[in-house]
Amino acid sequence: MKHIFLLFFVLASLVARAQNNCNIGNQSSVGYTNPGDPVFKDFLMGIKFTLGRTGTLRSINLIGRNTRTAAKMAVYKDVAGVPGKLIASTAIDTVKSGVISFPVTPTILDSGSYWVMAIYSTTGGHTYSTTQIGATNDSIYYNPQPFSDDIPGNGSDFVLYKDNTTFTYFLGIDCGITAGITEVKNSSVINFYPNPAIDFITINIRPNLIGEAYYITTISGTQVATGQLTDAFTVVDINALQAGIYFMIIGDRERETIKLIKQ
Under CATH, which architecture does the 21-175 domain have? Predict the structure, then answer.
């Protein structure tokens, strides 16, 4: 009986994870017949995928071919078929064999289309690709730039290269508001995540709170950190806090308080 119960628990967990998976993109190299096509260095280049429902971006991914080159990735919101505002970018990692997952700060993505891009420090067959005969929606946009440059904040001036090639890039997305994100109802705070947190939290606010302060206090009221809400998304470093329960006080004119758990 214990074994049956354990099997049921494992299967239920796997089903729950599958239901929370809204990944978009090419997650397998099967059928990608151009593994040797070179991707040129110093070109931020990518393709478009469509998300069918709201989800939480957790990672940007590619399937690598063990070229050992340095790479970094980015996601842009699509605006009328062209890359628009930068949504997320990653740190540098090495292209190994198999899936290389570049973590990002959890970010809410609305349903719609997004451009998934990568840039490499050397030229080579870093990932898998295929040319889709007759396809019309897999045009490539690119931006020539040194690998060492920052990822541009907007892709509206990127260049179109239309040859219907698609790469094995994909986004790791959880469906909807998932565990670890606090959704504050009827509030100027849209989302607050992750919670509990280990090292960083992200505060997603409405425009009326931009420029105001935030404060972190202990449950006894002692202030242990403060800062400013500089944008719609503000990332707060909580590495210096000891594990425990705190209060995050957001805003000066319209104060809102959220319980924060530091692990």
Answer: Sandwich (2.60)
